[in-house]
């Protein structure tokens, strides 16, 4: 092993030890990622270096990029603090009931066809008579499917002030229904649960369903029709975000089919 290779192995081992120090169980992480604990011990001690495949699995589990794993210690600590995705095992201490945990960590394999970016359209609870359009992404992060939603608006209807919407969450697919649970990043305690299905079973280009918002500060929950239109897996994000808007419900800039779907009543069947 060359000196540079040895140094890289030492840095990687130190960064792995740093990352694992934030986990409740290294063995639990090994089970989730699919690694042998003895092999992981070799990685942690610097006696061995992960293959490119295993490095990608470890990085995905920790919510960072594979190349970050060999960053100098100070840089790695900074990356760790700034990362968006929590390590999957960080939720182990919450004792999530096993059926729910399995649903979130092992959604049906068909969820892969839902990964990508979407323009979401939903009735506004804050501005009656308006539709909010924002961007949502669904992607893999270790064993999870995570979501991010973003909408930037130069002016909202009542005050004309700029408005920013940011949410993060998780998704699972059970049967034919895609379920997404998100929290509003700028308003902790505000949760939304969205249940969607494709308009046509074999086509994920247009999804329709119901979103239930549970606002913070004691406000009543609100159920609304929601429609997602696929933007593909590698859209022009700048253009997609620039199309975010708070629009009158009958605006000509909203696709007619989306308008019809949004107009369908929210049914509660006993």
TrEMBL record:
InterPro entries: Cro/C1-type_HTH, Lambda_DNA-bd_dom_sf. One of its GO terms (molecular function) is DNA binding. PROSITE patterns: HTH_CROC1 (PS50943). Transmembrane segments: none annotated. CDD domains: HTH_XRE (cd00093). Residues 31-69 form the HTH cro/C1-type domain. It comes from the Bacteria. This is Transcriptional regulator.
